[in-house]
Write a structure and sequence with these properties.
Distance between the termini: 41 Å
Number of helices: 6
Order of helices and strands: HHEHEHEHEHE
Structural class: alpha/beta
Organism: Pseudomonas guineae
CATH architecture: 3-Layer(aba) Sandwich
InterPro entries: Cell_div_suppressor_SulA (IPR004596), P-loop_NTPase (IPR027417)
Keywords: Cell cycle, Cell division
Strand content: 15-25%
Protein name: SOS cell division inhibitor SulA
Number of domains: 1
Pfam families: SulA (PF03846)
Strand order of the largest sheet: 1-5-4-2-3
Amino acid sequence: MQFPQSLNRTQLPLFDTFLASAAPPLFADSDEQFWQDDEGEAFSELSLRGAAGHCLNLLAPILRELSENNDERWLTLIAPPSSLTQIWLREAGLNRERILLLHPRGEQSALELARQALLLGRSHTVVSWLHPLKRQARKQLEQAAHQGKAQSLNISLG
């Protein structure tokens, strides 16, 4: 049996090839392009299943790109999981000077905090970890993102 590739070749890690491709960035550098398209959605959701460490490794390049965004506004993380620490942010190569980590206080919910952060418009992207997220909550985040000219990204860890 013959194989199309030599067995002596080293294999690239699974996502290095994807990330190194000439594909357009995950999020636009400028919100101007995003907001010109009335069809564009201001809400996105990413669902990750598996070991927490593996999920964070998959999430790292996305958060790194968002933290390097040319937009002057913040990347805001709402109620991230406890495994997402300042040490992890540094080791993942994120620009910690452009990131706000917010946790709800008192009777405020993470959903309400995310909605308020989006409405303020001081963040280019608000990342939340809300699971499960009902349709009405998605709609609230999407409307708040449109009003604040921001992007809402919800991460669902299973």
